[in-house]
Every structure is written in C-alpha cells, then in structure tokens.
C-alpha cells in the first residue's frame, strides 16, 4: 500500500489527492456499497455521481447494448438523441427548451459562460465566495474554492451567502441582494459589465445552503436589470437529489436563463449538458461554433436515457425526499443529545452537518469534522467535508438508499461523534 502511494505520487504528481488518512482501494461497487480487495464493504454516503447506485445494472445494460452496436457523435441522425433531448427539456420549466450536450460539468459551465458573455456583451461574473465551478481555465478562474492555487479572473466578484449567524429570512435575502448590487456597481464602474450570476443551486462548496426559499430572488433580479444572465449550476443538486424537485433552482423560486448539468446525468458515464432559453442559445449557436466530439455521443445518451427512465419510473426524487426526512429527523434527534452537532441543513438527500464543540474555534471545529470523516471511514462509512472552514460534513448518498442504510449511517455517526468529542 505504501509502495503504491509512493508510485502514485511519483507518476501522477501532487495535484492528485487521496481521500482519508488511510486511503481506500475499491475493487467493486454495487448499489450503496463499495468493496475493498478483502471483501470488506463500505457504505457510500458521499458519491453523488452514481445516484441510482453503483454499477446500476439497467444503466450498464443500456450502455453495453449501445456500445456493442455503434458509438457515434451528434453529426449523424440519431432518434434517441432527439428523444432524450426532448424528454430532458420536458423536465424543465417551458422557457428552458434548448439543450447542448457536453461530457463534464466543467465543460457545461465553460459553455454557459461563453453563451452569457456573448449574449450580454460583457465579461463580469458574480459567484459565491466558496464556489467551485470546474477545471477549465475559464471555470477555474471563477472558482474561489480553489484558493490561492488559482488566480481568479479580474472580472469575477464574490458574494457571501448569509449575514451574521441568526439573521432572519428577510435579512438573508436583503443581505444577498445588497452584495450582488454592489458587485454589479463595481463591475460597471470598472467598465467590465455583468455577463452572469453563476451559482450552484445548493451551494455545495459554500457549506450546503438551502433556506430561506427565495433568498436569492432579489440578487437574480438585480443581475437581469443590467442584462446579465442567470446560470444555475446543477452539477451537484440536479436530477432529483434535492427531493421533491428535479432541479435545485426550484428551491429558490427562480427560473434561470441557463442551467448546467453533469455528474449524475449518466450515473457514472461522463455526460453533461447546458439547457437554456431558445433566444440565448440560438444567438450563441448562430454566432459561434460549438462542436464537442464526445458530448451527446450515442453511448452517453444511452446511459442518460436509462437514468431518466429509472428516475421517473421508480419515483426516485420522491424516494429521496422520504429518505431525506428520515435522515434529517435522526440527525436532529442526535443534535439534541450531542453538542458536537451545531446545525443540520438539507434538501432531499444533500446534507450539510455543522460540527464543533463550543469554545474550540475554527481550527478545532475543522479538526473535529476531519476526525469524524476518518473515524467513519474506519467504521466503513464514506463521507467528506465542505464549507468555508471545512467544518461541515458533506453527506450525499446515492438516491437509492433505503431506511436500513440511513439507520446504519446514523448509528455510525453517533459513535464517531462520541469518539471525536472524547478527550484524548
Ligand atoms: N460544478 C460543480 C458545482 C461541481 O461540484 C463540479 C465538480 N465537483 C463541477 C462543476 C465540475 O464538474 P466536472 O468535474 O464533471 O467537470
């Protein structure tokens, strides 16, 4: 193991990070479980890509069938591509009726930025202060979450999500709008102008923020007043994760101009998309060229088509809502007995759990959250951390999780909390 880590570091370099103090090697996945070479199983409460379960047999069969017939690009007539595109846009509000396919979330955001910049004629992008939007140069430059490792674009402005702790719902909305307005004013003063407000609809890397409903509406309005586009990054919250809704932006009572998709769209096969309003998409389409060799290829479409079919047929988002309620109730109960849990936020099966004991400061809270993640890993349960101070547990199980998995997770986190809080 140590030798493999050394060889890995040697050939892959330092940008490849391993998760957990004791890294894990998985050889097989099935449903909610990942298996190591010794046959030990780990409950996956972290991976949101295989949202229909690891190695979903139906999705795999659809891909295998397509791959053994033909794998082709979008320049040929392919009924399934058109059928899927129609079904996909059918899950959006009717104004959002055009789609372009990509391979990753980064490509989707990159394309959305190109569209917004072309349509608005401006460069400026407003993002939240710990946002992550992708790997390409343009998306990395609007991803403050990458920290000092990346130089942010001079055209980016950051907004925080909430005022001081304990603000009312109305204050949260006013706070957000004020910041957006001052970002707009600054971008305009410097002649940069506003191309877009780009936000992750569940603010996953900002620490998972959901409430209050409608708190971003004022900011959205302000951006539109100056001709900027509103881009919802649904790479994390999309495809039913937030429970009752198919899309995270529905939590916020706004209809974006562009929506970017990725991760769970193919349950593990790389496929993404930008869905948008006809006017913007067509302006871009006629002014610029976008040809993506693998975006929308027949195998990816087969995977995505199977995913959408299962999501519908098995009422997965409704199930995610029910399981999310169960997990939330369990965590809230846990919080009453355990001072290490400072707060629980969720939409469906996307949770942020704030960790830390009173009086331990930011570093103490971060250390405790990290300790819990590693204790859980040792106990065979996978999660990670998020948030400005990385002291929020990020919990996003595949959406097919059942009551028994939720209960197992609750038991494991309670044990981890007790151990992490115990004096050394
Ligand atoms: N947007 C968000 C919100 C993400 O979380 C990610 C990936 N973590 C991306 C975009 C980029 O997606 P990808 O890694 O598929 O390019």
From TrEMBL:
Gene3D superfamilies per record: Aspartate Aminotransferase, domain 1, Type I PLP-dependent aspartate aminotransferase-like (Major domain)
Cofactor(s) essential for the protein: pyridoxal 5'-phosphate
One MF term in the entry's GO annotations: pyridoxal phosphate binding
Keywords: Aminotransferase, Pyridoxal phosphate, Transferase
Sequence similarity: Belongs to the class-III pyridoxal-phosphate-dependent aminotransferase family.
Protein name as annotated: 4-aminobutyrate aminotransferase-like enzyme
Species, as recorded: Rhizobium lentis
């Amino acid at each position: 193991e140590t030798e493999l880590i050394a060889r890995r570091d040697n050939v892959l370099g330092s940008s490849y990070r391993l998760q957990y103090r004791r890294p894990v090697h998985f050889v097989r996945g099935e449903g909610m479980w990942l298996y190591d070479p010794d046959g030990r199983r780990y409950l996956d409460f972290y991976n949101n890509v295989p949202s229909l379960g690891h190695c979903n047999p139906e999705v795999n069969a659809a891909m295998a069938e397509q791959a053994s017939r033909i794998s082709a690009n979008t320049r040929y007539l392919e009924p399934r591509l058109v059928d899927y595109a129609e079904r996909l846009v059918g899950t959006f509000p009717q104004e959002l009726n055009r789609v372009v396919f990509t391979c990753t979330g980064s490509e989707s955001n990159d394309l959305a930025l190109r569209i917004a910049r072309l349509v608005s004629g401006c460069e400026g992008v407003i993002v939240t202060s710990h946002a992550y939007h992708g790997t390409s140069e343009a998306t990395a430059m609007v991803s403050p979450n990458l920290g000092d490792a990346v130089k942010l674009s001079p055209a980016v402005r950051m907004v925080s999500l909430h005022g001081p702790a304990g603000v009312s719902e109305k204050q949260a909305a006013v706070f957000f709008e004020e910041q957006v307005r001052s970002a707009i004013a600054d971008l305009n003063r410097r002649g940069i102008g506003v191309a877009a407000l780009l936000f992750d609809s569940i603010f996953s890397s900002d620490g998972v923020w959901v409430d209050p409903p409608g708190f971003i509406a004022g900011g959205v309005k302000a951006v539109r007043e100056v001709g900027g586009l509103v881009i919802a990054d649904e790479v994390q919250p999309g495809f039913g994760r937030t429970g009752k809704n198919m899309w995270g932006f529905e939590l916020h009572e706004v209809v974006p101009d562009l929506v970017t998709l990725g991760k769970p769209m193919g349950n593990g096969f790389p496929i993404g998309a930008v869905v948008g309003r006809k006017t913007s998409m067509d302006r871009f389409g006629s002014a610029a060229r976008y040809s993506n060799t693998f975006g929308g290829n027949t195998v990816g479409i087969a995977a995505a088509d199977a995913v959408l079919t299962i999501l519908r047929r098995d009422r997965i988002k409704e199930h995610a809502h029910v399981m999310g309620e169960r997990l939330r109730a369990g965590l809230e109960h846990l919080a009453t007995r355990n001072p290490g849990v400072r707060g629980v936020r969720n939409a469906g099966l996307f949770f942020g759990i704030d960790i830390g004991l009173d009086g331990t400061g930011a570093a103490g809270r971060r250390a405790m959250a990290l300790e819990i993640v590693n204790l859980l890993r040792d106990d065979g349960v996978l999660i990670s951390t998020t948030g400005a101070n990385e002291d929020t547990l990020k919990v996003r199980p595949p959406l097919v999780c059942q009551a028994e998995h939720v209960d197992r997770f609750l038991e494991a986190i309670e044990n981890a909390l007790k151990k992490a809080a115990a004096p050394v």
